[in-house]
Specification:
Layout: H1 16-24, H2 32-41, E1 51-54, H3 61-98, E2 124-127, H4 131-144, E3 153-156, H5 162-169, E4 174-177, H6 179-187, E5 198-201, H7 204-209, H8 213-222, E6 228-233, H9 238-247, E7 252-255, E8 266-273, H10 276-287, E9 294-298, H11 302-314, E10 319-322, H12 328-339, E11 345-348, H13 350-353, E12 361-366, H14 373-380, E13 390-397, H15 401-411
Parallel strand pairs: 1-6, 1-7, 2-4, 2-5, 3-4, 5-6, 8-13, 9-11, 9-12, 10-11, 12-13
Bound molecules: adenosine monophosphate.
Adenosine monophosphate (AMP) binds near residues 30, 59 and 62.
Length: about 525
């Protein structure tokens, strides 16, 4: 944090009504991305600055663009109201001078009556790659405009009935949308983009991934008279830079390398596995950890997502699937169940999990690896939110080593390898890494930097699973269904469940080979809300 005084937000130059909302939300000081971006994004004497911000999810990036955008919309609203009032007073004075009847104020038309519907003419627009993210951003905006009387926020996303969207759009000052649905509404003349002054592209890299490049070009043309463009992206990859060149004028770059940006509050763990079923055993072990409040389990595909959620339900876990092939209504209901703590585990694909902001997500599991290294960063950012700590556990088969190296190269952080006693991999990592490549070449000469952390103990690779660590004697496979009591470091956690706090490797865990929860009694989640 750049400034720890309670007035740190006020020093950024934001309107009082927004400072009031920020205080209501309990934000005492701006996050680094907010401290850097907000002053640059606010209007200045010499005009407006376009910004290209590389910032991770969980860093407070949403408020970093919403606050200046809402500040500008609010200033415009106040100026418009003042002008209308001045005009009105002039007309009243004119009537008085002429000795005629004072004019009557025109009656406001009922905006909820469909007969009065007219095309929305927003002053600002936020584009998001997914419905979930758009909903989340719109919700954050609604929280921030609570004291801005008359300022309206609307979000439009695919899957919502047309009539509902049109009703919501009425008099909207800020519209948050996914590109496809926005263009649908623009083509049917329900929205007029000509007055958009600020255009925000959130998660621009993801919008390109999802094939929105043409839609973005069209929206760029439709909002050509805008004065400002703010683009947020996890990376400044060449394709993102090309997009910026097309859409922006001399953008100022904001690139952060703060602890939050590096996800320092999220402990990352890697488990090597021999096979998919070995990964399932590792996952089953972890999901019984009593320290889990709620978790997201990532799958690689929609099919894997459904299968895994079903499997978990079958063994009694409180789990639901979330992916792009589900209807929007079902996605909303499942997300709501997660937010309200009625579901403990969300099994999700990358796209569906974008934008999920649930502070009680204590763990993220990468069961299926992400297709792209940068998705890893987005995934783990679902935990460790709102100043909390999080744990991100990745399960990878040895054949996935290239993907793991790519992730490490991208995050510029090695993923510490850990083993669970009784679930050690039998295979071992072949060290076929070419030297000198990023993420790979960082390996210190002569040192196996990929050795798992297990407090100086040898790790289980190369040994039969269930042997040699955590107190299991050679060949002493713990009996499934009973905690393994066999000597050494096989200490028991109070509940016979894994204890992964305080940087412990799993060497201190009890045997994971415990019975599955009964089918009739899925794990209850209790959460105060
Ligand atoms: P984001 O990176 O926008 O997804 O935000 C991550 C989380 O941080 C959200 O739950 C926000 O409500 C929260 N947040 C944003 N700004 C602040 C702040 N200045 N202080 C504390 N929490 C914040």
């Amino acid at each position: 944090m750049t400034d720890t005084t309670p007035t740190a937000f006020a020093a950024l130059g934001l309107a009082d009504v927004l400072l009031h909302a920020v205080a209501d939300l309990g934000f005492t000081e701006p996050t680094p991305v907010q401290a850097q971006t907000i002053p640059l994004a606010l209007p200045r004497d010499d005009g407006w600055q376009d910004l290209m911000v590389s910032s991770q999810t969980g860093s407070g990036k949403t408020a970093s663009f919403l606050l200046p955008v809402l500040h500008t919309l609010w200033s415009h609203r106040l100026a418009r109201l003042a002008a209308e009032n001045a005009e009105w007073e002039a007309r009243v004075a004119e009537a008085a001078a002429a000795g005629t009847e004072p004019p009557k104020r025109p009656r406001r038309k009922d905006p909820t009556n469909p007969r009065n519907f007219k095309a929305a003419v927003p002053g600002a627009m936020v584009l998001c790659p997914t419905r979930e993210l758009a909903q989340q951003v719109a919700q954050d905006a609604i929280d921030l405009v609570r004291h801005c009387k008359g300022l309206r926020v609307a979000h439009i996303v695919g899957g919502m009935p047309y009539a509902v969207q049109i009703a919501r759009l009425q008099n909207a000052d800020l519209v948050v949308a996914t590109p496809g649905r926005l263009l649908d509404l623009q083509r049917s003349r329900q929205i007029d983009l000509s007055q958009v002054q600020t255009l925000v592209l959130d998660e621009a890299d993801r919008m390109l991934d999802l094939g929105f490049a043409d839609d973005l070009a069209e929206i760029h043309n439709l909002t050509e008279s805008r004065v400002q463009t703010l683009m947020y992206s996890a990376t400044f990859a060449p394709r993102v830079q090309q997009l910026a060149q097309r859409l922006m004028r001399a953008p100022h770059r904001v690139q952060l390398d703060s602890p939050q940006e590096r996800h320092d509050n999220i402990r990352q763990i890697l488990h090597w596995a021999d096979s998919r079923s070995h990964k399932r055993q590792l996952l089953d072990h972890w999901l019984r950890d009593p320290k889990i409040d709620q978790a997201i389990v990532f799958a690689s595909t929609q099919i894997e997502c459904d299968e895994l959620a079903n499997d978990l339900q079958q063994v009694g876990f409180s789990a639901v699937a979330l992916h792009g092939a589900l209807s929007q209504g079902l996605r909303n209901r499942r997300l709501q169940a997660l937010r309200q703590g009625r579901v403990q585990f969300l099994v999700a694909t990358d796209v569906a999990a974008r934008g999920i902001d649930v502070p009680t997500i204590s763990h993220v599991f990468n069961f299926g690896l992400p297709l792209k290294a940068e998705d890893y960063t987005h995934r783990i950012g679902r935990t460790g939110r709102a100043g909390r700590d999080g744990l991100a556990i990745t399960m990878a088969e040895f054949r996935d080593k290239r993907k793991i190296f790519d992730i490490e190269a991208f995050t510029r952080q090695p993923m510490p390898v850990e083993v669970i006693p009784g679930l050690e991999p039998q295979g071992r990592l072949e060290r076929s890494q070419p030297a000198g490549k990023p993420g790979r070449g960082r390996r210190p000469e002569g040192k196996d930097w990929r050795k798992p952390s297990s407090h100086g103990k040898p790790h289980g690779a190369g040994k039969p699973r269930g042997a040699g660590q955590g107190g299991h004697a050679q060949g002493d496979k713990p009996a499934f269904g009973k905690p393994h009591g066999g000597g050494g470091s096989g200490k028991f956690h109070a509940a016979g469940k894994p204890a992964h706090g305080a940087g412990n490797a799993h060497g201190a865990h009890p045997s994971p080979r415990k019975p599955a929860p009964s089918r009739g009694g899925p794990r209850q989640v209790h959460r105060a809300k």
